[in-house]
């Protein structure tokens, strides 16, 4: 764990908390900072993580400034959707771990996770990309991905480079498909674009076919899993989706068709037949995205946000 990361997060916390909360953090830091792995046992660390909720509201968003987020992204993590309480707990755990032996950090992580409430568990999972030798925590990360709690799943899967960095191919594909299945924001699964594959595309298309056979709607984010790997089957499915009506979100299929390489076909669909009103006037955000040829997962996220606000 880079000391600069700890200083950055601690600074964000200090600028958003009361003097009482800052005093708690300072006292806890003095208690655990010099005794990691010796005087302070994991049970005490777990207690401090729980006590943090007395000093910061669980609903208070961290809301990092642009320069803070840029610095965090440069350091390899994204705190955009953290709460201040998340950040405070992460500071406590990272402070403890700085001088603890590797085995001690792993044991403390498992102990704290075992006795944590939902908020504490989310904070611990969000700390994963900041911990050294991250592969040691794969079993815990996998446990979070299997959870029925969407909050826990997203704490592992979204806005974190940890899964893309450490998950094997099978675990990675399972994570992405589960994100689609539970309607989590797939575009926030860091590294998705870089780890697209024919097998992931096949799994996504199988899920699409299952939903269609059952008369259910295909989540728009499913098409993110294709890229150039869907082949003829993927293109055929996208063309079929273009003829659908809301709530089937044909805008997502048009974007994905362009992402698969059929840019001109997607633009032609957007314009519509000459005798009818051009779709460009109805979907300016999609038109702009297609003309920019930005087919990144982040671009899809912006479109998903736009269409969620304009949907009837």
Explain what this protein looks like in three dimensions:
- This protein has about 300 residues and is an all-alpha fold.
- It is built from 17 helices and no strands.
- The radius of gyration is 22 Å and the shape is elongated.
- The model has no long low-confidence stretch (mean pLDDT about 90).
Q: What's the topology here?
A:
Layout: H1 3-14, H2 19-33, H3 42-51, H4 66-75, H5 84-97, H6 102-115, H7 118-126, H8 138-146, H9 150-157, H10 162-166, H11 169-181, H12 198-213, H13 231-242, H14 250-259, H15 263-271, H16 284-292, H17 297-310
Helix pairs in contact: 1-4, 1-5, 2-5, 3-6, 5-7, 7-9, 8-9, 11-12, 12-13, 13-14, 14-15, 15-16
A few lines on this structure:
The protein is built from 17 helices and no strands.
Labels describing this entry:
mainly alpha, about 300 residues, 17 helices
| SSE series | HHHHHHHHHHHHHHHHH
Total helical elements: 17
Q: Tally of extended strands?
A: 0
Percent in strands: under 5%
Instruction: Please tell me the overall pLDDT.
Output: 91
Span between termini: 46 Å
Structural class comes to mainly alpha
Helix share, percent: 55-70%
The poorly predicted ranges are: none
How many strands, what sense, and barrel or not for the largest sheet? none
- Indicate the radius of gyration in whole angstroms: 22 Å
The backbone outline, from C-alpha atoms, is elongated
